[in-house]
Amino acid sequence: MSGEKKQNVYGATYTVLDEHEVAAELAHHAHAHTIGTTDIVSIQPCPTPAERSQDRFVVADWLISDQTWRFQAVLDGHAGHETVDHVVATLPDVVHDALVAGLSGEGPLDVGDLLRKAIACVDEQIGQEMLDLFPGGPDALANMSDEEVATLINDGGVNSAKVLRCMRGCTVLIALIGPHLDIWVASLGDCQCVLGTKTASGEWETRVLSSNHNAAEASEVARIRSEHPGEDECILRDRVLGAIAVTRAAGDFDFKLPAIYTTRVFLNSNPGFRPGYVSKIPEFIPRNLTPPYVSAQSEIQHVHVPSLGTSDDVFLVLASDGLVDLSGYMFGIDHREPAVGGRKWVEVLSREERTGAGNAALYLLREAMGRDADKVSSLLTLELEERWMDDTTILFTKLV
């Protein structure tokens, strides 16, 4: 019954909404809207201001040399908003300007390499701006007092911002769609990109165009161990240095710089790390022997849609890992199997009942939240001050 108070399996109270209320509240909380041909949702239902979403997205069409290039990105911030806000404000321009320069030059353009370099460049600048505050390097920093360091970095302005961007982090997922339906996807972290294509025979095929960069991924574990031979605890408990799940990200310079920058700079910052994280630092700092451990090198995938021989139905989904979490809960999907989750998303989005049902991203979100009004109510109306579900962002674009 609408308005009834119930408790979930953990004893937390929520309010039951009827079907009309669920549809309205979900669309409201998810900020459901459409830009061009892209349906968008981005949700964090917890009302506490400090728990506001750290997801960001960009949807833009660029007219370059009389041809349209479509740029889409999902960025998932962690530990704070500073890094993800900086990256979302700077990276699109870096990619756009590099694309303009590349298309006006002679010879073939390697779009994948352009994306990889653009992401790495933005990340390198984040670190370098902080390092420039200490021109003498680690040796000079070691000779500064805590008071001197704190005075320098806690100016409440430019210097503070430079330090905080290094202390926070974000994943990056970019899809760049060319004028002839070439798609280049750059992934840095654990967001996911899926291409759904309907074959001439009417069957749907799924292609995962992103990579899964976390310390539970065997290939990432092997890469990091090969880069740090003899360091048995470079991966511990499915985390880098036993402390962070993602293996590739922008920011997170406590895993990219020598330990002295964490102990002397980051721990003297105000504001600092989140309280729950500070307790981990004494444990993982002794493991920081040969940084970097977290990489800003994205992986690139490319597909030329016309060569797939599909019919007249092709769509692209970009999603933050919050959708992976919800899919795991509702569909029983293991997060280490992105292809399985991708197939489920394509199955949901290709249903006949979904056609003409409005915002496709909202449709997928509701399905992942449980579809049933009571289940969705239990995720929308919990009476808690701390977040109970991860930030979740979905971009759905019909390409053909």
Automatic annotation (TrEMBL):
Show where the PPM-type phosphatase domain sits. 37-399
- Gene Ontology molecular function terms on file: protein serine/threonine phosphatase activity
- Pfam families xrefs: PP2C (PF00481)
Instruction: Kindly provide the name given to this protein in its UniProt entry.
Output: Serine/threonine protein phosphatase 2C
Organism phylogeny:
Eukaryota, Fungi, Dikarya, Basidiomycota, Agaricomycotina
